[in-house]
Structures are given as C-alpha cells and as structure tokens.
Amino acid sequence: MKRLAWLLLAAWGCFAQMTAVRFGTLVDGRGQTHRNAAVLIEGGRIQAVTSASQPLPSSAKSIDLLAYTGLPGLIDVHTHMTYVRKPRPGGAAWPSSARVYLARENAAKTLETGVTTVWDLHAAGDASLTMRDLIREGHMRGPRMFVCVHGIGRSAQGPEEIRQAVRNQVEAGADFVKLFASTGSYNDVSGDPTFSYDEIAAAVEQAHKLGRKITVHSYGPAAARDAVRAGADSVQHPAELDDDTIREMVRRGVFYVPTIDHNRYYRDIAPTMGWPADTGKKLEEFIGRNLETTRKAFRAGVRIAMGSDAVNDMFGQNTRELEWFVKAGMTPAEALATATGNAAEMIGMADRLGAVAPGYLADLVAVEGDPLADISAVVHRVRWVMKEGEVVVDLRQ
Ligand SMILES: [Zn+2]
C-alpha cells in the first residue's frame, strides 16, 4: 500500500505543474505585506504563500518578479465590456456576435490594467453572456466576467412586471440583477427616479428569492435612498446621498460604487461628441458632487467598491477611479481594497477572489513601485498579470 501511495504521488507530481511566482514585496489584500515572497500555484489556485528564499519543490516552474510588487488580481464592479464605438457602414447597429468580436480589444485592455474580474452591468442582446462564456471556456482572452445580461429599465412597470423582468434575466443566465432606478447616463447627469419604492422593493425581493445580488443605478439621492431602504446590495453612481441614507448604508452593509471617473471620461470627450454646449460644465459639476459624496460616505464608514463604468475607449483606464478615491481621503491601501477585498465581498466571492492566500484563485498582478505609498503604481505601472494560473499580460522589458 505504501508503495502504491508513493507511486500515485509521484505520478501526480508529473502531471500537476506547480508554479512559484516570486515577488520582492507582496501586498496580499488582507492587510499583510510580505517581503521577498513566493506564491505557490497549482491547478489555477494558490497553494501557499512562503518566503522566496526557501527551496522550492524541484519540479516547480519559477517566475521571478523580485523587482516588482505583487497584488491580488483587481476587480472592476461596473463595466460595459461589449460597448464599442466602431461605426458600421450604413450606420446600422452591429449584431451581438459582431460586438463580441469587436470587444476583444476592451477585454485585452482591461487585463492590462490588472483587472482580472468584472461585473458587467448591461449589454445589447446576448453579447455579454456570449462573451462571458467564451472567456470562461478559454476561447477568448479577457477578464472573468459576471453579467446582469440586461439592466431592467422603464419598459417594465409595476411590481408584477418588474418581478417578471427579474425572472427573465435570471433565466437568461444573469449572475446578478441590475435595476436602472433613475435617469442619468453619459452626457445626462440628471438623477430623477424612474421607479417607485414598491417597484424597487419588488425587484430586490425577487432577485434575492432567486439567489442573486441586486445593484441599483441612481445618479441622484432619491432612488438611492429607496434602493437602500428596499434592501439592495449596492448602489451605482449616486451623488448627494443624504445623511440618513449614508447611516443606513453603514448599518446594512450596502456597497457604494461612486464611478466618479467615468464622468471625467465623458467630460474629456464632450467637445468631440456634438452634445449641448454646457455638457462639459454639467459633467464637471457632477464630478465635484460625486467626489464630495464619496468623501462623506467613506468617512462615515460606508464600504466602497471600484467600478469604472467603462465603455468604448475608456477601457484601459479602468483603475483611474482609485486616484479619485485617494482624493476623497483614502490611503492608497484603502483605495486598493476597493478593487480587491471590498469588491470581492460585494460580488459575493470573498472566499476565492480579492486576496493572495491559500485556496484563492491564482489571479496576481505585478506593479512597478510601491502601491501603498503611491496609488499611481497600480493605475499606471502594471507590468505583468496572471489569471487563474496563466500569464495573460507580460509587459516587462
Ligand atoms: Zn454603466
């Protein structure tokens, strides 16, 4: 028996390739910084975090990143991966299949920012579902996607229709549910509620009944207040959250996804878009209110997660949001947590994403410099990315 056990172990050693990734510094996403660390990986999962100076198993393949700081793979909790601005001859919209093909670039650019997981918050047709599955099966290079399929908007009316709309999305394959509960998007920063409290509550109840988290789009404070009171898991965008709502978010553990930077993106492109002349100014004012709300919510203890709301050529800038969070009063470590531990918890995956620890998926990022001293190391100096044990980005000289 002993001999058989040994033979089995030896055979296993031949098949299962162990990889050891060695970092000069490792920020593990759980509040610990390890100097001279080795992350041992097998089968796409982290087996152990040890010292780089310890002898490694002889069959292990070693990747030397001692000149870099290692981080957990980052999570962007608000993308529109399949939005592309590539006009079709004749001006008609591309079908979903073409969008998925054209979105390869968005996916690649997202990986280059160190983001290995996204929550995709609306797409046309079945584009996001298709893209999610192609990536999952290894046919397409990109971050791990979780999708809401379609965000539920005003075409559903009344609690019954809204419950049905939630069921439809989940049946279609939605990993979570999104509700558009106010006006406001790209060049429009109005935040007028589009659903009543009862309608929002119906959506929340149905989503939870089906075992799905629900996130609510609200530019203004009113729909966010209703969403929080109705039991939503997170709110996207809102500026000018009132004090009672902020207190309630802390008490209930509702996540706030400010998405400040996407309005910076729209402000930057405004002059080329043919929008009304005052659009840039309105976006700028909204950014100020959004930043102030983030500062206030953070001080009060609201949990915050990083969502870029990236579309089109904003991909590649997914993590610029972290610079706004530092402006809002976070330390670089606190900002980093919004894209690691907090984000993992918000999407219900804190047991496998957002940390470098045994049992977690082997998603790792190497950056140049010290991200705990200067967040721009994360935002602008990602050099290497691993997703589930596979190197997906290598920009080292
Ligand atoms: Zn969005």
Describe the fold and architecture:
The chain is α/β, with parallel strands linked by helices and 397 residues long. 37% of the residues lie in helices and 21% in strands. The chain folds into 2 domains: 16-72 and 355-394, Urease, subunit C, domain 1, CATH 2.30.40.10; 74-346, Metal-dependent hydrolases (TIM Barrel, Alpha-Beta Barrel), CATH 3.20.20.140. It contains 14 helices and 14 strands. It has a 7-stranded mixed beta sheet with strand order 3-2-1-4-12-13-14. The protein has a 4-stranded parallel beta sheet with strand order 8-9-10-11. β2 and β3 form a beta hairpin. α5 (158-172) runs parallel beside α6 (197-209), α7 (221-230) runs parallel beside α8 and α9 (260-269) packs antiparallel against α10. Zinc ion binds next to loops.
Q: Which features characterize this protein?
A:
397 residues; alpha/beta; TIM Barrel; globular
What topology does this entry show?
Layout: H1 2-15, E1 18-27, E2 33-42, E3 45-51, E4 61-72, E5 74-79, H2 96-102, H3 104-112, E6 115-120, H4 127-136, E7 144-147, H5 158-172, E8 177-180, H6 197-209, E9 214-217, H7 221-230, E10 234-236, H8 243-252, E11 255-257, H9 260-269, H10 279-300, H11 321-327, H12 332-338, H13 341-346, E12 364-367, H14 376-380, E13 382-387, E14 390-394
Parallel strand pairs: 1-4, 5-6, 6-7, 8-9, 9-10, 10-11
Antiparallel strand pairs: 1-2, 2-3, 4-12, 12-13, 13-14
Helix pairs in contact: 2-4, 5-6, 6-7, 7-8, 9-10, 11-12
The structure holds zinc ion.
